[in-house]
């Protein structure tokens, strides 16, 4: 049985040493009361909740899965009870502004809480995650009346929620959607259509489910310019917030998936269901915009949770499994063989897992501070935070999930044949993770967002904004001999990033297909350089702690070693990406369709 | 539903154009009667069998899986009937020498037959594959009497077989095994112990199951020097080949696995089961040696089958799924959107799948010709074939399965969210494939075999033997302007391969951990260079056909384009591997065990 133990020490390192949360919150308008003591208390409570309440549902949730019977969905044992405790504990409203009925904590607090409950069981945490979708839509596009009608029970966890975009014929190309909405003339709308892949579209955790639905008003312009956003309850909600009749919202079936079996993925039929429009007509995507960005970072977080889970399993096994002797001589001479953690290739796998996991954590927590700044910082801070977030969001989504693919693969590999057996949980982690490079926009979509919309779309400015951050850091540290293993290489890659971008941009003037053909290589390249910056900064902090003789020296030493491992063993991949991304797209585009 | 259609055109290209099978068989002692007509007939019949009899069991086999009840295993619907037809069709004895009761066809014929039935349903083909294990052991180590007793019904498919190595505490480290054998003094032995992960250990396809078991005779030396090989029937076999009493062989349970659900993975208890020793006492591994090498190439073949299956699914979907417009203008102006095959990134994924699939096929079929030569060639040919096989077997196993991991990943990615849904079969291909990098020796074990035993163990000779083959090819083609996209790069990498090997070897004198830390990078590097050689040769053949105006020009043109794609987009990965493999192992080895 794969255990989960919240990685408290590394989380504390990232929050306190690396990100100096004390200073961060002290400077954050309206969040000055967030002290390190409060942070510790939240971290402890969330860790306990994740370990003791959520983690026990991990294997059983996969084994039992959700069941569907005549429109009703039954979630696995323990899901409903855990959800009840989640709501009662106030976790669902943690980072919602106090004036909207939440607890008013900054987003960065939500990040580490979500890491722990997600790592404990991502399938379970999908329900709370998606319940945040109508909340976000209401906050961005709801009237005061609608907020009062729906928010309280969404925030208490008594009601759940969904986000409904996908239809059978339209996934990435949301502009093709056909679900219809007609104005009833009384402030309500009638929504009709079928949505697929709706996580938590039906479940037995909450008394009601509030669906946030993208639909098209009759006569609306084609494509993405004619999409509006609606909020449609499963059971009608009266003005006073009490429940009315059922509202023609039915679940047609649930999908049989590769993983995340505890999360019900529903086909939802809206057959003349009543609801309310959020925001302006035909501007539904604008209301959803922030939600989508956060959901993308949240999916990057899934990558981290799966890495952490897989790493924990692999390390435990590698310390316990005895096979063969270390080449440098027996390390467990009294046993029949040495634990496999002595073998260089096993360590290479564990170090890869570690470098990606810890790198993802530091990167995503840093981004969560940028989200804080975008909301509570000065105008200048908010502007810079937004520029960083715009640029780094597709990297967080694309890179942290693609690398999680590798990390969960390696976790199984460390287990050998036992990794393929369900009871150990390692294959479940890989299956649960597998969707992360797909939903909330595939890696290909993230890559086009990055290189097309963000980089080329800003004339390179959003890239330069970040490479300047890296450049300043390198300049600061260039005379620090302790950082010689990191700074010159980071500086070189940071410059190459710009050169490659220019090359792709110039190529695109002659052949627009070069953008698409370079895009995923570009995304991955960007991820490796971004992580190099993050790892160099972590190495610096760890070295400073070691020099000052503060804290757990072995921990800081391991941090520096992992940074070196990252630079020596993973960062070289930029060489391959740099070469392939600028290759002539002809060999990609030349084949006749019938030759495939 | 994921269809399977045997890739006849590419198979014909590899067998006839690339490998000149006509000439190959004509020169092969004892195989001169194998004509192209016979080849075509076998290919056609096997393709029909795979498509019509085996492929229909693919999805149902996964959905139903095997069930276990009180020692009995029930395989999914259709498995037994397909197995009966397989035996009756003579497929099980195809490549067994005529003098041993087989059909006497060369091994290379078995390779393409196995590709098709394996691609149709690998889980099903495990039963026939493993039934070949006791056959191979008997041929290598059985007396005439034992062969007569066991072979006829193993070859007719009336009996099945297994290969039993793994025990709960010993996988990669086979020397730790504890299963005991005692001499009954009457030519029989009694075997007692428990084996795990035994594919087909119990099933309902055949009347009897013949287990090939590694065990230790009391008082045998520790480790691999004290291992003997036994053949133990589930039901006793009398001297005349008739069945006797049951033989204390029981299945304790079957595993719940990530994939290959139609293949029963059994815990087998041998509780004083009677059997016979094959080969000499304590030399069981020697008898099994050839089998293990062929099983490794056979697992490489699994990689190819999964690539092909995933590619076929992804191409069909990419031609049919309409999402967004081509950046160069609508390609399907009358439809709501263009088929996604117009998008460069989708093509990049399909071309990657294609380059790996076709590269694996050509590589493995070429190896199968080497197997033919090792058995039927002149002394000189056999020596060279054996040298190539020794060196290339871990590459075939390691590289063709690791790349299949990526290819089956990309197949799901092309499908977007639908790839995660069971009914489309794409996630099944990924799950079924996942074990291929583990069983028959993990990638890490293959990598150590390659760099340690084969390269360093031969003082570099086995590597030089192959780089010389590449070198001669490059010399021949260096003035061929048509080959300018391939030869200089191949030449450069071929030389670098030697340099890197030397660097690792010299490093290992000072620090033996460099071998293990470099090993997997070295294996993957070797695979990419090997495939570059294969692709360059295929490009040459295709260009010659184009120049001669022979055959299907679009097919040959696609071959050249795919070769260019491989060189431009995949081969650059050698840059990353070359850099990381020679990095100081310190960052891999430095962490204290307790710091993990």
TrEMBL record, chains A, B:
<feature type="domain" description="Acetyl-CoA dehydrogenase-like C-terminal">
    <location>
        <begin position="467"/>
        <end position="591"/>
    </location>
</feature>
<keyword id="KW-0274">FAD</keyword>
<dbReference type="GO" id="GO:0016627">
    <property type="term" value="F:oxidoreductase activity, acting on the CH-CH group of donors"/>
</dbReference>
<dbReference type="InterPro" id="IPR036250">
    <property type="entry name" value="AcylCo_DH-like_C"/>
</dbReference>
<feature type="domain" description="Acyl-CoA dehydrogenase/oxidase N-terminal">
    <location>
        <begin position="40"/>
        <end position="158"/>
    </location>
</feature>
<dbReference type="InterPro" id="IPR013786">
    <property type="entry name" value="AcylCoA_DH/ox_N"/>
</dbReference>
<dbReference type="InterPro" id="IPR006091">
    <property type="entry name" value="Acyl-CoA_Oxase/DH_mid-dom"/>
</dbReference>
<protein>
    <recommendedName>
        <fullName>3-methylmercaptopropionyl-CoA dehydrogenase</fullName>
        <ecNumber>1.3.99.41</ecNumber>
    </recommendedName>
</protein>
<keyword id="KW-0285">Flavoprotein</keyword>
<dbReference type="Pfam" id="PF12806">
    <property type="entry name" value="Acyl-CoA_dh_C"/>
</dbReference>
<dbReference type="Pfam" id="PF00441">
    <property type="entry name" value="Acyl-CoA_dh_1"/>
</dbReference>
<keyword id="KW-0560">Oxidoreductase</keyword>
<dbReference type="GO" id="GO:0050660">
    <property type="term" value="F:flavin adenine dinucleotide binding"/>
</dbReference>
<dbReference type="Pfam" id="PF02770">
    <property type="entry name" value="Acyl-CoA_dh_M"/>
</dbReference>
<dbReference type="InterPro" id="IPR052166">
    <property type="entry name" value="Diverse_Acyl-CoA_DH"/>
</dbReference>
<dbReference type="Pfam" id="PF02771">
    <property type="entry name" value="Acyl-CoA_dh_N"/>
</dbReference>
<comment type="similarity">
    <text>Belongs to the acyl-CoA dehydrogenase family.</text>
</comment>
<feature type="domain" description="Acyl-CoA dehydrogenase/oxidase C-terminal">
    <location>
        <begin position="282"/>
        <end position="453"/>
    </location>
</feature>
<dbReference type="InterPro" id="IPR037069">
    <property type="entry name" value="AcylCoA_DH/ox_N_sf"/>
</dbReference>
<dbReference type="InterPro" id="IPR009100">
    <property type="entry name" value="AcylCoA_DH/oxidase_NM_dom_sf"/>
</dbReference>
<dbReference type="InterPro" id="IPR046373">
    <property type="entry name" value="Acyl-CoA_Oxase/DH_mid-dom_sf"/>
</dbReference>
<dbReference type="InterPro" id="IPR009075">
    <property type="entry name" value="AcylCo_DH/oxidase_C"/>
</dbReference>
<comment type="function">
    <text>Involved in the assimilation of dimethylsulphoniopropionate (DMSP), an important compound in the fixation of carbon in marine phytoplankton, by mediating the conversion of 3-(methylthio)propanoyl-CoA (MMPA-CoA) to 3-(methylthio)acryloyl-CoA (MTA-CoA).</text>
</comment>
<dbReference type="InterPro" id="IPR025878">
    <property type="entry name" value="Acyl-CoA_dh-like_C_dom"/>
</dbReference>
<feature type="domain" description="Acyl-CoA oxidase/dehydrogenase middle">
    <location>
        <begin position="163"/>
        <end position="271"/>
    </location>
</feature>
């Amino acid at each position: 049985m794969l255990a989960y133990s919240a990685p408290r020490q590394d989380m504390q390192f990232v929050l306190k040493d690396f990100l100096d949360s004390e200073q961060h919150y002290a400077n954050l308008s309206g969040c000055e009361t967030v002290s390190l003591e409060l942070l510790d208390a939240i971290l402890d409570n969330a860790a306990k909740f994740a370990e003791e309440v959520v983690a026990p549902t991990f294997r059983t949730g996969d084994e039992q899965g959700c069941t569907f019977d005549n429109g009703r969905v039954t979630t696995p044992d323990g899901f409903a009870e855990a959800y009840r405790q989640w709501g009662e504990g106030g976790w669902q409203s943690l980072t919602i502004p106090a004036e909207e009925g939440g607890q008013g904590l900054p987003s960065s607090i939500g990040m580490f809480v979500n890491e722990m409950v997600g790592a404990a069981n991502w399938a379970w945490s999908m329900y709370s995650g998606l319940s945040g979708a109508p909340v976000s839509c209401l906050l961005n596009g709801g009237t005061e009346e609608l907020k009062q009608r729906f928010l309280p029970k969404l925030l208490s966890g008594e009601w759940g929620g969904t986000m409904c975009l996908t239809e059978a014929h339209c996934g990435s190309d949301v502009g093709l959607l056909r679900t219809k909405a007609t104005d009833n003339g009384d402030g309500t709308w009638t929504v009709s259509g079928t949505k697929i892949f709706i996580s938590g579209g039906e479940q037995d955790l909450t008394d009601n489910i509030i669906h946030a639905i993208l639909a098209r008003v009759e006569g609306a312009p084609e494509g993405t310019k004619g999409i509006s956003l609606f909020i449609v309850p499963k059971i009608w909600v009266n003005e006073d917030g009490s429940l009315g009749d059922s509202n023609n919202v039915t679940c047609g079936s649930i999908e049989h998936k590769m993983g995340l079996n505890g999360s019900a993925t529903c086909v939802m039929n809206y057959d003349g269901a009543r609801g309310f429009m959020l925001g302006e007509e035909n501007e539904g995507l604008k209301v959803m915009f922030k939600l989508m960005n956060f959901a993308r970072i949240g999916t990057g977080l899934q990558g981290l949770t799966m890495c952490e889970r897989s790493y924990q399993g692999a390390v435990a096994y590698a310390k316990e499994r005895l096979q063969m002797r270390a080449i440098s001589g027996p390390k467990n001479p009294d046993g029949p063989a040495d634990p496999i953690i002595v073998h260089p290739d096993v360590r290479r796998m564990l170090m890869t897992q570690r470098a990606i996991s810890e790198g993802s954590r530091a990167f995503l927590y840093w981004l969560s501070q940028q989200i804080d700044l975008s909301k509570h910082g000065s105008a200048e801070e908010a502007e810079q935070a937004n520029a960083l977030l715009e640029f780094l969001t597709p990297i967080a989504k694309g890179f942290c999930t693609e690398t999680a693919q590798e990390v969960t693969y390696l976790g199984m590999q460390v287990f050998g044949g036992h990794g393929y057996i369900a009871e150990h949980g390692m294959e479940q982690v890989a299956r649960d993770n597998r969707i992360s490079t797909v939903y909330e926009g595939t890696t290909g979509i993230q890559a086009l967002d990055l290189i097309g919309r963000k980089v080329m779309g800003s004339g390179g400015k959003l890239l330069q904004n970040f490479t300047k951050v890296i450049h300043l850091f390198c300049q600061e540290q260039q005379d620090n001999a302790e950082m010689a293993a990191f700074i010159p290489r980071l500086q070189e890659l940071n410059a190459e990033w710009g050169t490659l971008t220019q090359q792709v941009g110039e190529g695109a003037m002659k052949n627009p297909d070069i953008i698409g053909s370079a895009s995923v290589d570009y995304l991955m390249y960007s991820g490796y350089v971004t992580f190099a910056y993050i790892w160099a900064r972590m190495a610096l902090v760890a070295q400073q702690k070691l020099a000052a003789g503060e804290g757990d020296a072995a921990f800081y030493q391991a941090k520096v070693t992992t940074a070196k491992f990252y630079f020596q063993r993973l960062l070289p991949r930029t060489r391959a990406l740099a070469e392939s991304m600028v290759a002539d797209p002809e060999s990609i585009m030349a084949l006749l369709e019938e030759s495939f």
